[in-house]
Design goal:
heterodimer, A: 5-stranded mixed beta sheet, 5-stranded antiparallel beta sheet, 1 helix, 10 strands, B: 292 residues, alpha/beta, 2 domains, 7 helices
Chain lengths: 103, 292
């Protein structure tokens, strides 16, 4: 399936992937090819794109997820690339929002 | 006498030449910025467009009861995006004219109009005409950041959440091409849904979605994001338009300066020649007087 990860300022990922893991208000969500068309809001946390084993994680401050047919589109207000596991990314994403609140 | 004329002309040539240097430099700067601004605009397009699409779909489905939202108050917010600096041809004039028209239209509908200006030129224009703007922002339009859009929108979103604001318009200059930019009024709230125009088509696409958590909650969460994103898109469009507009204006100014220099150089040559002729005839006249 085709996955795109974009923030308002730049595009982070665009290409084929086997799985996407993200977080909605109802909990973690894993998306495989052939998922039903969905629109979901994303809560602060992590986002991981799995390309047949190679994983790339991102910290995300919240956003929207749209699944249409064979395409998964992730719109994040603020996204940062994270070198590490999905858990690291989740932590980072939550930190990002905490910082904003403190400021 | 004649040499005074010559000196005046030469002085003008000098001043036109230095003006030409400035306009030429500004033209080149604008030209280099336009490329970057355009790239940023394009990379934001997918974010802005998709968010617009989802919100329009949701509202079309009736996720938000539009009538009750509209009746809450009659306050409208106009966000006018202008530039901080001048010398951009008709760029600011066009957008301000459009802003004034929109304002007059809203006032004639007996609405309370709140003005938010982004850019020094817009602020100055409205203050001079005694329309106080509620919020003014500067230093944003040259290279807009997403955080800037966020900051401008924050009070508006708060007003909307408290039910004080029912309509929001953004006035910006849409970048169509390097040669065409258009002053545009974008209605942000109430959300214009596509489905009102062609019901069948959108029902097919949006009807199939499942929403997590629920359509209402998704929409509620999306509205502020949609407002931020749309404003950000508008800021980027305006910024690109500003650079394009400035480039064209400065190009024209440089060309005018060149023409002017040509004309003045001719005049200067003529004056110099006249001066020499006078001198020669004076010398000849003097020599003849002595010979007699």
């Amino acid at each position: 399936m085709l996955v795109e990860v974009v923030s308002p300022e730049q595009s982070f990922f665009s290409g084929e992937a086997t799985m996407v893991i993200s977080r909605t208000p109802e909990g973690e969500i894993g998306i495989l090819a052939g998922h039903e068309p969905t629109v979901a809001t994303l809560v602060p946390g992590g986002l991981t794109v799995d390309q047949e084993g190679t994983k790339q994680s991102y910290a995300i401050s919240g956003g929207v997820l749209q699944i249409t047919g064979e395409k998964v589109l992730i719109l994040g207000e603020a996204i940062e690339e994270v070198d590490g596991s999905h858990e690291d990314a989740v932590e980072k994403g939550i930190q990002m929002v905490d910082q904003e609140v403190e400021e | 006498m004649a040499s005074a004329e010559l000196r005046i002309i030469n002085r003008r040539i000098k001043s036109v030449k230095s003006t030409k240097k400035i306009t030429r430099a500004m033209e080149l700067i604008a030209a280099s910025r336009i490329v970057k601004a355009q790239q940023r605009m394009e990379s934001s397009n997918s974010y802005v467009d998709v968010l617009n699409q989802i919100v329009a779909d949701l509202v079309g489905k009736g996720g938000l009861d539009k009538d009750t939202e509209e009746n809450k108050s009659n306050k409208a917010v106009i966000i006018v995006v202008t530039s901080d600096r001048g010398l951009a041809g008709g760029y600011n004039t066009n957008i301000l004219k459009a802003a004034e028209n929109k304002q007059a239209e809203l006032l004639s509908e007996n609405k309370e109009v709140e003005l938010v200006t982004v850019g020094k030129k817009g602020t100055g224009y409205f203050n001079y005409r005694n329309f106080e703007s509620v919020n003014e922002y500067e230093g944003v339009t040259d290279e807009p950041k997403f955080d800037d859009a966020f900051e401008v929108m924050k009070p508006v979103i708060e007003g909307y959440n408290e039910g004080e604001v029912s309509e929001v318009y953004i006035l910006f200059t849409e970048y169509i091409s390097a040669l065409t930019q258009k002053a545009t009024v974008k209605q942000l709230l109430p959300v214009v849904s596509d489905s009102e125009e062609n019901t069948e088509e959108t029902e097919d696409t949006s009807g199939g979605y499942s929403f997590e958590p629920s359509p209402e909650e998704v929409l509620e969460d999306l509205i502020p994001k949609y407002m931020n994103a749309t404003l950000f898109g508008a800021l980027l469009n305006s910024s690109t338009s500003e650079h394009a507009s400035r480039m064209r204006a400065m190009k024209a100014a440089t060309e005018n300066a060149e023409d002017l220099i040509k004309v003045l150089t001719r005049e200067s040559n003529q004056a110099r020649q006249a001066e020499i002729t006078t001198e020669i005839s004076e010398i000849v006249g003097g020599a003849e007087a002595l010979a007699e």
